[in-house]
Design a protein that fits this description.
The protein is of the alpha/beta class. It contains 20 helices and 5 strands. It has a 5-stranded parallel β-sheet with strand order 3-2-1-4-5, sandwiched between helices. Bound molecules: flavin-adenine dinucleotide. It comes from Streptomyces akebiae. Its cofactor is FAD.
Length: 452
């Protein structure tokens, strides 16, 4: 008998329960990926993520070839393509990872109906894209946790399944048509320093992180210039690394750094469990605050381009464009600047992030934006981050700012965070804008708007 394994956000061979189940139960397996036209139509297929995805698919294909198999790549409607491949291969089962996103839920439902009509069984496997599945831990009085800390308490007590090794051999039937896996060549508009995708790269990064990064994570994760976070987020988004395996390996590493890191992985699961039961939170306020957001196209443009006149905000926005990634502290303070200081709708910022982030992810991006905007799960929804205070705390020497804002490269030390305070001639020599907004004014406008 033959099984099809549909890869989606789980582009790896290690710790892959659907692939393992298919191999255990079948003589031959068809590992397949569909370049889904609905994802492109929804505006989600942006150059940075397409490039990372191409790396992932090529790496998955070569990993399968080393084991005697190959990846079957198709384009079009995902349900139609899976049904076609199942028919060509005369498969009796299709295996798929569970995914709580609204689109993935619809995809699963459509797939189930179409396969049932064709007499093919669909197996949906849990704990592939999250460490703890959405819905596994719920409070007594509600269908999900709306506050992270109690969620984390329950999450931490869950027993995780063991991580699986990669298969030795994968036998794929002959004669199943496939496209070449896509490549980066021909993609334009990529960030110049975009990370490389693929399981091989992800595993190398993870090993290096466990050896020499995780230990200092608790102390250094907020240090903007130190860049001391794992940068594993795109690998988690595309599933080249398994969250279950990551939690196990981090816990084995042990220590306060590992504990703090595991806590961040739980945030990822937390956001997914919110979105699983409140799918509308991808675009609608999770907690309505009746904000009267401003439309301020020129200020939004200055924010997008990194010329707000607040050096740390501009540095982070330029990092985003240059790398397709931004440090978490940068994400927090740039999002606060847009939604509170400029009082612009969080959806405007979330869209810009999704256009560029290589780890851009509906659950993590939209719910973190809502968290910062105070329409989400933050228990202090009206706090406003002051970018100057933040800069002095998290970039005390100004190195991060000088790295990303070359116009300020000659301003030494923390003075770089407040160029408006430089002596007249020094200030005049800088080709750098004046602040587009007064911080106190922005803060009051936000608090007034929120009350009214
Ligand atoms: P590390 O600090 O090494 O953390 C390890 C992993 O934990 C991350 O890879 C990520 O999977 C998870 N994680 C860490 N922080 C969070 C968090 N706050 N929420 C959920 N998961 C987290 N993360 C995304 O993966 N995709 C997004 O689109 C995204 N958009 C964001 C938008 C805003 C406005 C904010 C404030 C945060 C956003 N984050 C997003 C969360 C966080 O900033 C990134 O996950 C993190 O910066 C990635 O870098 P890292 O892998 O080095 O993280």
């Amino acid at each position: 008998n033959v099984s099809v394994v549909l890869f989606t956000s789980d582009l790896r061979l290690h710790d892959h329960p659907p692939l393992r189940a298919a191999l255990d139960g079948s003589r031959q397996v068809v590992p397949m990926f569909v370049r889904d036209r609905a994802v492109a139509a929804a505006g989600f297929a942006v150059p940075n993520r397409l490039a990372f995805l191409a790396d992932c698919l090529r790496d998955l294909d070569s990993g399968l070839r080393e084991r005697g198999g190959r990846l079957v790549v198709r384009s079009g409607d995902v349900v139609e393509e899976v049904c076609k491949v199942a028919a060509e291969a005369e498969a009796d089962e299709v295996h798929l990872a569970a995914d709580a996103g609204a689109y993935a839920q619809r995809r699963e439902e459509r797939l189930r109906r179409a396969l049932e009509a064709a007499g093919v069984r669909l197996h949906v496997h849990e704990t592939v894209t999250t460490a703890v599945d959405p819905g596994r831990v719920t409070p007594a009085s509600s269908d999900h946790f709306s506050v992270f800390t109690p969620y984390f308490g329950h999450w931490s007590r869950q027993r995780l399944r063991d991580a699986l090794t990669a298969p030795q051999t994968v036998r794929v039937p002959d004669g199943i048509g496939s496209e070449e896996p896509p490549s980066r060549a021909g993609l334009s508009g990529l960030s110049p320093e975009l990370a490389t995708g693929g399981e091989t790269e992800g595993r190398a990064r993870l090993t290096a992180w466990l050896r020499s990064g995780i230990e200092a994570y608790e102390d250094r994760h907020d240090d903007l210039a130190g860049d001391a976070t794992s940068r594993l987020s795109p690998h988690l988004h595309f599933g080249t690394l398994s969250p279950v395996e990551l939690v196990h390996r981090a816990r084995r590493a042990g220590g306060p750094g590992a504990e703090a890191f595991v806590r961040q992985l739980a945030w990822r699961d937390f956001n997914r469990q919110v979105l699983a039961v409140r799918p509308a939170a991808a675009s609608v306020d999770y907690r309505a605050r009746h904000d009267s957001w401003r439309s301020a196209p020129d200020e939004v443009e200055a924010w997008r381009e990194g010329r707000t006149g607040y050096p740390v905000v501009d540095a982070a926005m330029r990092q985003l464009r240059h790398e397709g990634w931004m440090h978490n502290r940068g994400r927090l303070l740039t999002a606060s600047f847009l939604t509170k200081t400029l009082y612009v709708d969080w959806r405007v910022g979330a869209r810009h992030f999704l256009d560029l982030l290589v780890d851009g992810d509906v659950a993590n991006n939209q719910l973190n934006w809502q968290w910062v905007a105070g329409t989400g799960t933050d228990t202090r929804p009206n706090r406003v981050l002051n970018p100057v205070t933040q800069a002095k705390r998290y970039d005390p020497e100004g190195e991060y700012v000088r790295r990303w804002v070359p116009e300020l490269a000659d301003v030494a030390g923390p003075a770089v965070h407040e160029p408006w305070k430089l002596p007249g001639l020094d200030r005049a020599a800088l080709d750098y804008p004046e602040p587009i907004v007064e911080l106190a004014e922005g803060r009051e406008r936000f608090l007034r708007g929120r009350k009214s």
